Amino acid sequence: MNRRGRVIVASLAGTSIEFYDFYIYATAAVLVFPYLFFPTGDPAAATLQSFATFGIAFIARPVGSALFGHFGDRVGRKATLVASLLTMGVSTVLIGLLPTYAQVGVVAPLLLALCRFGQGLGLGGEWGGAALLATENAPPRKRALYGTAPQLGAPIGFFMANGVFLILAQSMSEEAFMSWGWRVPFVLSAVLIMIGLWVRMTLHESPSFARVVAEGTRARRPVVQVFRTSTGGVVLGTLIMVATYVFFYLMTVFSMSYGTSPDGLGLDRTDFLVMLLVGVVFFGLFTPVAGLVADRFGRRPTLIAVTVAILLFGFALEPMLASGSTAVVQVFLILGLSLMGLTFGPMGALLPELFPTNVRYSGASIAYNLAGLLGASLAPYAATKLAADVGLWAVGGYLSAAALITLAALILARETRDDSLEETPTRARA
């Protein structure tokens, strides 16, 4: 058996490192890559091209979820989590060593896209394994709370990523930062990866997977079987996560792009990073709160209430973000990222609970990452186009529409709080 404290640390540390890797790219996609990896001339076009490479990872993530999900359900959670962390880490470090467009021309954005694909591949296998590590080792009636451990990796990783960029921006000149300083967060990832690997190598397999091995009920082809027996879980899990993904990338990547753009709010880069970091603190605080509430009242009631709030928040996006008041924009970020914590927290338990043990890694990972492909891959790009061509009100409408899709899926879904994760595959519901 794994000690519960070690389980929480391992799931939290791994996702924090992987989300750190993922978010330093998101930050650099706004602040650095449009100027160093794409032809100069039209800043808006370069930003859109940078966001396009940002979206490549979300195409890779479902591939990663199928690849790592197969081995997670066949070989085990522990070995697969180590492999996914290595894949993500190597790709991130390589980004910090890439030549720029001025040095090698069109080869630069191609190499950037390849490394971004590797990041998506690794993260595609990371989240599902970390969520299973937490929930399959959780005590009764505390699965949602334990499931928030990997979810906390998102605000912690985001805070670390933007904190490093903020320190660099304030400690060196603009020329030094654009010349070599931006590479530091990517190369620093190597140290974090070594720590994450050490933590995960000390774990044992989860009791649920060990039971499947002992009973000889491992799926021969987990990805095929999950679509054959649990299609409903994949579809509903994907749609339940869509609003979460759209919301997060509008609140972070798009808001930072709009907030620092001369055509938007025109705020100083470091000032807006500080404002985002303040909002992310509330993201982290409300994530475990959501787990406690979901354990007490159930996953569906909790998420339905939060999703309605997100839908209404879409109507407040334009008047708050375009208010011209720094204080109002800060309140906008705090409110939005607080809601983000409340909707993101219960997902660490809900998605694994939709699937039987022998295909749980594949099922939870595929649903989570298909939602990323549908909800997050286009969010910064689509929001930037909508804001430029139609107006900020259309960005708010985009968020409300995504919330409406998630709300419909939650109404159709069943409550999973009282389901057993030890249910045998022959008796598990699809």
TrEMBL record:
Keywords, alphabetical: Cell inner membrane, Cell membrane, Membrane, Symport, Transmembrane, Transmembrane helix, Transport
Location of the Major facilitator superfamily (MFS) profile domain: 7-417
One matching Pfam family: Sugar_tr
InterPro entries assigned to the protein according to its UniProt record, in alphabetical order: MFS_dom (IPR020846), MFS_sugar_transport-like (IPR005828), MFS_trans_sf (IPR036259), MHS_symport (IPR004736), Sugar_transporter_CS (IPR005829)
The organism's taxonomic lineage, starting at the top: Bacteria, Bacillati, Actinomycetota, Actinomycetes, Streptosporangiales
Membrane topology per record: Multi-pass membrane protein
Transmembrane regions listed in the UniProt entry: 20-38, 50-69, 81-102, 108-133, 145-168, 180-199, 230-252, 272-294, 301-321, 327-351, 363-384, 390-413
Name of the protein: Putative proline/betaine transporter
Compartments in which it is found: Cell inner membrane
A GO CC term assigned to this protein in UniProt: plasma membrane
General function of this protein: May be a proton symporter involved in the uptake of osmolytes such as proline and glycine betaine.
GO molecular function, one term: symporter activity
PANTHER family found in the cross-reference section: INNER MEMBRANE METABOLITE TRANSPORT PROTEIN YHJE, SHIKIMATE TRANSPORTER
Keyword rRNA-binding: no
Main location as per UniProt: membrane
Family, similarity comment: Belongs to the major facilitator superfamily. Metabolite:H+ Symporter (MHS) family (TC 2.A.1.6) family.
